[in-house]
Design a protein that fits this description.
mainly alpha; Hypothetical protein af1432; 2 strands; 61% helix; 1% strand; disordered C terminus
Amino acid sequence: MTGVADRAHVRLAELVAALSLGVDLGFGQPMEHVLRQTLIALRLAERAGLNEQRRADVYYTALLVTVGCHADAYEQAKWFGDDIELKATKYGPHDARSVRAVVENMRRIGSGNPPLHRLRVGLAFALSGHREVEAMIMTHSGLARGLAEQLGLAQSVRDAVAAAYERWDGRGWPGDLKGEEIPIAARLAQLAEYTEVAQRVGGTQAAIALARRRAGKQFDPRLSELLVAAADPVFEGLDEVGNWQTVIDAEPALAVVVSGDRFDQVLRAVANFVDLKSPYTLGHASAVAELAERAASGHGLSADEVRTVRRAGLVHDFGRLGVSNAIWDKRGPLGAGEWERIRMFPYLTERMLRFSDALAPLGAIAVQDRERLDGSGYPRGLAGTAISRSARILAAADAYQAMREPRPYRAPLSAEEAARNLRAEVTAGRFDDATVSAVLEAAGHRVPRRREGPAGLTEREVEVLKLLALGLSNKEIAARLVISPKTVGSHVEHIYAKIDASSRATASLFAVQHGLLPDGELIGATAV
């Protein structure tokens, strides 16, 4: 699939902002918490007299300040139950270093389990767990720094996110810095993070009270005074502005744009970072993307479509951030409520990506990853051709790859077991045979050769011809198949050339004569 120009590009700010929406959910906060804190931090930075480059440091630091906290969600759930509920306590009334905060967290040990299990967990925590938790907190900022480096952000941003958990009084994590040794971008981001929650929950006066109470302890006292003095303009309009576009437009300095191979690199970096949420999913997104890419290429999709499928594979699990590891890593059967939360995660992926013109098409495919042809999938229960061809390829690749990996409730399946199970899904009507054959062939299995369509039409061309014959416009076909109208136009040109047609009518007659559509379906679709 070389030789075809890739015109897709995305602003780096859009990708990081999209990731922040999932991070919000992982902290039990409403989406746009991080976006709002970024606006607060930028407003404070401007009042502090920071120049444009230093404000750019503040911008990306505020967007990334908590991004590493999901990486040990497995351990958080092991010790404290629901990791999302645990992280939400970060914004409680008590200072994280206070005795009351420690006592509150101790009460959560083994939460959600029977008393005997909680006792065992409590004993294990007393022996080694408290040290493990301290080490976990210290690694969060290091992981965020690593992601900032992979995204190509400036050294000043990497240093700031690495200091995201330091405190003015020197009692932070890892505790190497204090006072003005902490980069000002980190100090501003931390102040903005906590006061955003306080202001959203309790109003501006609550944010002022928090800034005053923790000044000289957690927060830089000078920045706290700055916020108190300018609280009204700093918090003004946060509920009314469209935070997504406002934050994207507020990026200081020149916007960072990535395209081509660099687009894939940053998507892969974020995908690998999201996969850290559970030890059972490490590298999953990249493996699915590669398998789906090979299957799409062998399935007759265009170069643009193949690229889009690959990128959709990289982002398809972003919504997992919004579901607790107490569910993802559960060894026993899930309850009804737990299943409902699972069924929401593809929607959360779509929700994270939908604001960006460059990322939304990937979300439109990813949201269908768990849909099934018989309507038994989720989140919308789509069936048949309502599920795009690209999504069907992604779904089959995801299912196969997941079976080849360990899960908390089973060991990894062999290649033959996975192939056998995937073929059983075809028999049950949940996957189509052609898609599964393409995935299995891409995975190295021997499959019967697929026959070409009449006149040498590819399977994608047959699909376009059927919809064309039913009277759909190129734009409508594009929406149905989740591809661009330009790509549809290219397919139509190839179809006309192969079947020697010059109009939709002659193409429709060809479709009927070759058994691609029943007469009744064609007449019913074109009747006026």
